[in-house]
Amino acid sequence: MEPYRVLLADDEEEIRAGISRKIDWAGLGFALVGEAENGAEALELSEQLRPDVVLTDIKMPFMDGLELCRRLRQALPAAKLVVFSGFDDFEYARQAVGMGVSEYIMKPVNAPEMGEVLTRLREQLDRQRMERRDMETLRRRYEESLPVLRELFYTRLLDGRIRPDQVADRAARYELDMPEGAWTAALTRVGGAGESEAQRDELLLLSALAFLDEHFQLPGACVRSLLYNDAVALLVRLEGPEQVYALTEEMERLCALARSILGMSLTVGIGQPCAGPGELRQSADGARSALDYQVLVGEERAIYIGDLEPDRSVRLSFGEEDQRALESAVKLGSREQVEVLVEQLTHRVRETRLSLSQCHLFFLEIVTAMIRLARSGGDEVEEQFSRSFTGMVSFSDFHSPEELGRWLCARCLKLQELLGRQRTDSAWKTVEQAKAFIAGNYADCDLSVESLCAHLHLSATYFSTLFKRETGQSFTAYVTELRMGQAARMLQDTDEKTYLIAEKTGYTDPNYFSYVFKRHFGVTPSKYRAGQRA
C-alpha cells in the first residue's frame, strides 16, 4: 500500500534532523517527503507536495504554525495537522483545536510519543482510504437499491422528468432494456371513482399489480409494471402502433378476469402509442384523460384515449423540457448535439402535419427561447440573427422543414459561438484585472487572494483555479515573481538600502525578504547588486 506523505516544518534544524532520523517512517506506513524551516516555506511546499500529514512547530519565523494551519485547512482540507510547541500554553492548544488540528504535542518531542501519534493518524487515514476504495461495498449497496432506483426511473419517465436523450443511458445504468420503438402507457385504477381511499389502499394496489404481472398475455409485447401514484402503471413496448388495439382487448379481458377471480374492480386508461420511451409522459397524460371518461363509458373496462380523442396526440408545443434541452445544447453541448436537437425539433414539425398557424406558433416559441438565451448571456439579438432583424420572422418564409432546420441550426451555432467567446473573454478580462490589481498593490504587505477577490467580487476557490489555468502559476508564485523582479531592478538601478527595497516590494521583514530573494536568484541581495554593477 502506498505510504502516506508527511511534511515537517520547524525552524530548528536539529529538531527536524532528530525527528527525521529517529522515526521509523516506513515501518509506520509514512514517507517524509519534505522539510521546511518556516511557515511560509511550508505553505509553498504543501501546494507542490500535497501531503497527507503536516507536522509543524508553533513558533516559526515569517509565518507561525497556527497561521500555517489556518491556511492549510483551506488549501488541504483532508490533511491531518499535528502541532508541537515548547510553550505549555492553553491558549495555543485552544486555537489549534479550533482550527481542526488532529494532535497537539509538547516539546521536547520523543520518538515513542510521535510514533503513537502517527499510528493513530494512520488508522484514521486507513479508514478514509478504505471508504474511498471499497468499491465492492458501494456496488453491493447500489445493487440492493436497484429495485427502488428502477421504480423511481419509471416514475420519473411517466412524469416527464427525464429528457428523451437521457433515457437510454439511465436505463442502461439500472440494467433495464428500454429500446426505441412504439411504447404506450396504461394506468389501472382499482375500485370505482367514488370509493374511499381505504378501499383503494396500497394492499389493493399491490394485489392488482401482482394480478396483472401474472395474467398479462400479449404476444410480441413487453411490459414493465409499477405502482404509480394511486394507480398501477403498465409501460408496454408494442410491436407497432397498431398493436394498441390488441392491448386494449387484452386489458378488457384482464378487467373481466379480475372481477371473476378476485372480485376486484379494475378500470384501465390507455394512452396513445409514442415513438420511444422518452415520450411516455404524453402517453401517460392520455391514459389519465382516458380514465376521466369512466363516468361516461362505465367502469371495469379498458378505455383507449385514441377512440375518444383521436387527435389528442397531434399537438406541437415548445415546453419546459425543450427549453432546458436548448439551453444545455447551446451552452454546454457540442456542434453535433446542437444539430441533433434542431433535427429533432424539425422532425416533430414534419410528423405532426398540423396547420400552418400551429407550426408558426411552435416556430415562434423556439425563436423566443433563443432570444431569451442570448439576452441572459449579455449578447445583443442583432449579433445572433442580423443587424436588420426585427423579430418579424414567419414559418412561411421557409420552403420546407429542412430549410427551417438549417436556419435554426445556424442561429443556434452562432449563439453557441457568442456565448463561448463571452466565457473566454470574461476569463481573460478577469485575469487581466487581477494582474493590474497586483501590479498596483504588490508593495502592500497585506496583499492576499482574499483582498484581491474582494476587489473582483469573486470566490477565492474559483479565482485560484481560473488564475492558475490562465497564467500557469499560482497567485503566490505570481506575486513573488513580480516582487522579486521589482526588487532586482531597484537593486541594480538605485542605491537604496535593502530594508527599504524590502518595504517597497511588500516585505515587512528584511530577513524574510533576503531569504526569498536568495531562494529566487541563488544569491543574497547585496551580492546580486555587487554582481550587477561589476
Show the helix and strand layout.
Elements: E1 4-9, H1 13-22, H2 25-28, E2 30-36, H3 39-49, E3 53-57, H4 65-75, E4 80-85, H5 90-98, E5 103-106, H6 111-133, H7 135-159, H8 167-173, E6 183-190, H9 202-215, E7 222-228, E8 231-237, H10 244-262, E9 266-270, H11 280-292, H12 294-297, E10 302-304, H13 305-308, H14 320-332, H15 335-352, H16 356-376, H17 381-384, H18 401-441, H19 449-456, H20 460-471, H21 475-493, H22 498-504, H23 510-521, H24 525-533
Parallel strand pairs: 1-2, 1-3, 3-4, 4-5, 9-10
Antiparallel strand pairs: 6-8, 6-9, 7-8
Helix pairs in contact: 3-4, 14-15, 15-18, 16-18
Helix coverage percent: 55-70%
Termini, distance in Å?
Answer: 55 Å
In the predicted model, the low-confidence regions spanning at least 5 consecutive residues are 192-196
- Silhouette: elongated
Oligomeric state, counting identical vs distinct chains: single chain
Structural class of the helices, strands and pairings?
alpha/beta
Strand content: 5-15%
Q: What does the radius of gyration come to?
A: 35 Å
**Sheet with most strands: strand arrangement:** 2-1-3-4-5
How would you sum up the major sheet? Answer: 5 strands, parallel
- The total of helices stands at 24
- What number is the mean pLDDT? 85
Q: How many individual β-strands?
A: 10
